[in-house]
Specification:
Blueprint lengths: L4 H15 L14 E6 L14 H10 L4 E3 L6 E3 L2 E6 L5 E6 L13 H11 L15 E8 L2 E6 L6 H5 L9 H7 L14 E7 L3 E6 L20 E6 L3 H9 L5 E2 L7 H6 L4 E3 L6 E7 L9 H10 L2 H7 L5 E3 L24 H10 L3 E2 L5 E3 L2 E2 L1 E7 L2 H16 L3 E7 L4 H4 L7 E7 L3 H8 L16 H12 L3 H17 L3 E7 L3 E3 L26
Parallel strand pairs: 1-10, 18-19, 18-20
Antiparallel strand pairs: 2-3, 4-5, 5-7, 6-7, 8-9, 9-10, 11-22, 12-22, 13-20, 13-21, 14-21, 15-16, 16-17
Helix pairs in contact: 1-6, 8-10, 14-15
Length: 534
C-alpha cells in the first residue's frame, strides 16, 4: 500500500531518532573535509576479480582506475590509464599506450607490467574469480615496454573496450595481491585511483583518503584530480528509513540507497537535491533454478511468472520510481530484440492457474496444489532489507492465490552471497546493472557461468553459440543479429520473472554541491572526483 504524505513524514521522523546514533558528517569545503556516503549493504570483499557486488564496485571505482572509461552516456569511450590504443585490422590485437605519470597510493609508478600482472591474476585457470568472460578469449597479454601493453585475442570481441571500463578491469597492485592472498581487498588495497583504501570495518564502514597528486582522471569529467574531499566514508546503514533520516539530519551527505517512498519528500525539501545519471540500466528480477524438481517444467515456470503482479510491486514498493518490466533487460538497451514474446512475463493469474492444471496440479483441502501426493512448495532466497522483503512478501501473496506455497528465506547482504551458491532453493531475488543486451547475456546466460552468476543452471549450447557469435562480431549488424536471437532463446525458456526497471536517483544533502552522477555498474558516485562540499 502506498504511504500517505503524513505517513512519509512520520517514517522519517521516527527514523531520525535512530539516525542520531550515527557519527556526524565532518569537515569543511576549505580543507576538503569528509564526505559521508550512505548505503544499505556492504561488499563481501574489495577485490575486482573476486566480487560482482555493487557494493564492491562502489569502492573499487574510487580506489582504482581502468584502462579505458565510458562517458556519462554509457556509449562514448574515453582514455583512462591508457591514453590511446589501436586495433589491428583482423580485430585480434589491441595495443594500449599507457600514461607515464600514474602512481599507486604507496608512490610506486604504474607500468605495463602491472597491467600484465593484473590480468594474469584474474585469468589464472581454476582461480575462484568472477566475470572472466569480460576479458574475451585471450591469447596473450604482454608488455612491449614500460608503457605499452599488447592484448592479443584468439577471436574478435565486439564488446571488449566497453567491458574494460567496468570495475572488474580496475588495475590492482599484483605484488600486493600475491603477498596478501585471501586478505587482498579485505585488509588492504593499493590502487591508482583518486582515493586510497584506508580501512574497512565489515557491515559498518569503509574509509578512503584522498590520493594526493592524482591528476589523471577522465577527460569528460569536470575535475581530473586531485579529489576535492580529503576523506570519503562509506557508511553502512542497513535500515533504509534510518538512512533516509540520516540525510535529513545531515549525518550522511548523499545516497542512492534510500527507500523509494522517501523521494517525494526529499524532492519537496529545498535543502536536498535529487540527481540522476544521463543513462543507467538496472533490472530487478526473480530467478528460477530450473534443475530443482518443481522448476523443471516450463509450464510451472510460466505459471509462476504470470501469477506475479509486477505493476503492483512497482507502485506499492517503488512508488512510481520504477517501471514494470516484461523482459530480462530494458527495451531501451542496445541490441534488445523487439520480437521477444513478452506475454509470459505479464500478469495473468487465470492463465497461470490453467497452466498448472495442464501440468497435473490440483488444489488440496488446504488450498495448496498437489500432484502425486506432493505439495507444490517452493523456496525463495532473498535479501533482508525493507524493499526486497516487501517484494518477496508480495510474490509470496500472489503465488498463494494460485495455490503455490512459497517459503521465504531472507538473509542480510553479507550472508546471502554464500547462500546463493547453494542448490537448495527454487527462486531467488536479484537486481543488476548492465550496459546493453550483450552485457546481460554474457553475465547470466552462458553455461560457463554456472553455478554463479548463472544461478538458473541454464546450460544450452545454442545460447552459448549465439552469444559467442555476438561477442566475435566485427560489425554492428552481425552483433545485433546474434544477441537478438540469443535474447529470444533465453526469454522463450522462461528463466526469470522480470519485476521492475529501476532508475538510479542520488539524494544529495545540504552540505554537498550538485554533481553529475554516473550510471556505470549502478555506482552513481563513480570515482568520486566530482564530489565536493559547499
Amino acid at each position: 500500500m502506498r504511504k500517505s504524505p503524513l505517513s512519509l513524514s512520520l517514517c522519517l521522523g521516527l527514523a531520525l531518532g535512530a539516525a542520531a546514533g550515527l557519527a556526524p558528517a565532518a569537515g569543511s569545503a576549505a580543507d576538503g573535509g569528509t564526505i559521508t556516503l550512505g548505503r544499505s549493504s556492504d561488499g563481501d570483499r574489495y577485490d575486482p576479480h573476486r566480487s560482482s557486488a555493487l557494493a564492491a564496485a562502489e569502492v573499487l571505482y574510487m580506489v582504482g582506475d581502468t584502462l579505458v572509461t565510458l562517458g556519462y552516456d554509457l556509449q562514448t569511450l574515453h582514455p583512462g590509464l591508457a591514453k590511446s590504443w589501436e586495433l589491428s585490422d583482423d580485430g585480434l590485437t589491441y595495443t594500449f599506450h599507457l600514461r607515464d605519470d600514474v602512481t599507486y597510493c604507496d608512490g610506486r609508478k604504474f607500468t605495463a607490467k602491472d597491467v600484465v600482472g593484473t590480468m594474469d591474476r584474474w585469468l589464472k585457470p581454476d582461480a575462484p574469480n568472477v566475470s572472466t568472460w569480460k576479458a574475451g578469449n585471450v591469447d596473450s597479454i604482454t608488455a612491449a615496454d614500460d608503457f605499452t601493453v599488447v592484448y592479443k585475442l584468439q577471436e574478435p570481441n565486439s564488446a571488449l573496450l566497453y567491458q574494460m571500463a567496468q570495475f572488474n578491469f580496475v588495475m590492482i597492485d599484483p605484488e600486493q595481491a600475491e603477498a596478501l592472498g585471501e586478505d587482498f581487498g579485505v585488509t588492504a588495497f593499493n590502487g591508482t585511483g583518486p582515493y586510497c583504501f584506508e580501512s574497512w570495518q565489515p557491515r559498518e564502514s569503509v574509509v578512503l583518503r584522498r590520493h594526493e597528486g592524482y591528476t589523471w582522471g577522465p577527460e569528460f569529467m569536470s575535475n581530473q584530480g586531485p579529489a576535492k574531499a580529503e576523506t570519503v566514508i562509506w557508511k553502512i546503514v542497513p535500515e533504509e528509513a534510518t538512512l533516509a533520516a540520516s540525510i535529513t539530519a545531515g549525518e550522511v551527505d548523499a545516497s542512492y540507497s534510500v527507500p523509494s517512498w522517501s523521494l517525494a519528500q526529499f524532492e519537496a525539501d529545498p535543502t536536498t537535491a535529487l540527481l540522476r545519471p544521463e543513462a543507467s540500466f538496472r533490472t530487478h528480477y526473480l530467478g528460477m533454478k530450473i534443475t530443482r524438481p518443481n522448476m523443471q517444467d516450463r509450464k510451472v515456470r510460466e505459471a509462476v511468472s504470470l501469477a506475479i503482479d509486477q505493476s503492483a510491486i512497482a507502485d506499492a514498493i517503488f512508488f512510481g520510481t520504477a517501471e514494470p518490466a516484461t523482459a530480462y533487460y530494458s527495451q531501451k538497451a542496445l541490441d534488445y530484440n523487439p520480437e521477444i514474446d513478452q506475454s509470459p512475463f505479464g500478469y495473468d493469474p487465470e492463465r497461470a492457474a490453467a497452466l498448472l492444471a495442464e501440468a497435473g496440479w490440483a488444489k488440496g483441502a488446504d488450498g495448496v496444489l498437489e500432484k502425486g501426493g506432493e505439495k507444490l512448495t517452493l523456496t525463495l532466497y532473498g535479501f533482508n532489507n525493507s524493499s526486497s522483503r516487501e517484494a518477496a512478501e508480495a510474490v509470496q501473496s500472489d503465488l498463494r492465490k494460485i495455490g503455490v506455497d512459497l517459503a521465504l528465506e531472507l538473509y542480510d547482504n553479507t550472508a546471502i552471497w554464500g547462500k546463493l551458491r547453494e542448490q537448495t532453493y527454487d527462486l531467488y531475488q536479484m537486481d543488476y546493472p548492465y550496459l546493453n543486451a550483450g552485457d546481460a547475456l554474457n553475465l547470466y546466460f552462458l553455461s560457463a557461468n554456472v553455478p554463479s552468476p548463472n544461478r538458473m543452471m541454464w546450460e544450452d549450447p545454442t545460447t552459448d553459440k549465439l552469444i559467442e557469435d555476438g561477442n566475435k562480431a566485427t560489425n554492428g549488424d552481425a552483433r545485433h543479429a546474434a544477441y537478438a536471437e540469443a535474447g529470444k532463446v533465453v526469454h522463450d525458456a522462461l528463466l526469470w520473472k522480470p519485476l521492475v526497471n529501476e532508475s538510479l536517483v542520488v539524494v544529495a544533502g545540504a552540505r554537498l554541491k550538485p554533481f553529475q552522477p554516473h550510471g556505470i555498474s549502478g555506482a552513481g558516485f563513480n570515482n568520486g572526483l566530482t564530489l565536493e562540499l559547499k
